Amino acid sequence: MLVRVDFNVPLEEGRVADDARIRAALPTIEHLRGRGAALVLCSHLGRPMGFDPELSLAPVSKRLGELLDTRVYQAPEVVGPEVRRGAGRLAASEILVLENTRFEPGETKNDPELSRALADLADAYVNEAFGAAHRAHASTAGVTDFLRPAVAGLLLENEVVTLNGVVDNPKRPLVVVLGGAKVSDKIALIERFQEIADAILIGGAMCFSFFRAQGKPTGDSLVEEEGVELARQALERAEKGGARLLLPLDLIIGDRFDADAERRELDGTHVPEGWMGLDVGPRTVEAYSREVADAGTVFWNGPMGAFEIEPFAHGTRGLAEAVAAAPGTTVVGGGDSAAALAKFGLADRVDHMSTGGGASLELLEGRQLPGVEVLDDA
Questions:
Q1: How many angstroms separate the first and last alpha carbons of the chain?
Q2: Cβ distance 31 to 24 under 8 Å?
Q3: Which terminus of the chain has fewer Cβ atoms in its 10 Å neighbourhood, N or C?
Q4: In terms of Cα–Cα distance, which of 365, 357, 367 is closest to 188?
Q5: Which active-site residues does the annotation give?
Q6: Residue 65 · residue 94 · CB < 8 Å
């Protein structure tokens, strides 16, 4: 059985630094092994341009074997005669991990020849890689042209059902918290949630595009010029009805983006020249936390500030604590939000933490995911 997993995990000195994505796939892997299936696992890792030994999946295979307490075989290539022989020799419940699928140039091109070669390794296909389901690649989409049945794994199915539930049938009120740097990255999400959410809370550097659109001084803060007009349009839509659009009430500013920067609390949002906004302030955290506490459903994607720098982590930490304590259904959209929850020790206190940043956003935007649409039970 060919299983597309998302083992795109960080490596440090040849070892897996964070095994969360590996652990997320374990229920499906163990379920299939329990039924006697021999498994061929495939995944990408990073963005190599051809073979790159530093992005080999060998350390991932080693960590998977440790988690399962069993031997996991590592293939020397993605496809080829030796890989076919290795897959053919697998006994029931044994596991072979193919090399990084992006070592093959045909992977990202959804090449039919590579798709067929992958399909020849198994008699059924399971997509468990929600984090890659928004890509029409050979291992996520093209392979299903040559291999059936093709079904969703437990993780992918849970991701799709949970995220669709946020937009299709949320418990009210639905409160959406969006942070990050660029309005352009989130504008499709903002537009959709302006139609269906009760409140949208804006944080992170993208709030400065909104402030610039309102004519407020932003000092040396990061402002996405393309995002200013998008923010202006979102503000105009908010005036006409739909979801309430909330912006920060106060800010933490610094004289530079650095852990040793001079830090000031700004009672307001007018950033003076020579300073940059690097976090939301305590009044904003309090106001946003009240919205989250009163919500029936919370969706959070994107930090409130430069949380990776401790002097400017207060806003994201406060928001993370509010989401963790919220009585409603809490869904976190992966990426930096998931990293923040992990950093503050709160990852196990939300109802659902998505394993796919880009995939989760595209699904919530209402876009079709190629890796989901091709499945038999999609």
A1: 19
A2: no
A3: C
A4: 365
A5: 21, 182, 335, 358
A6: no
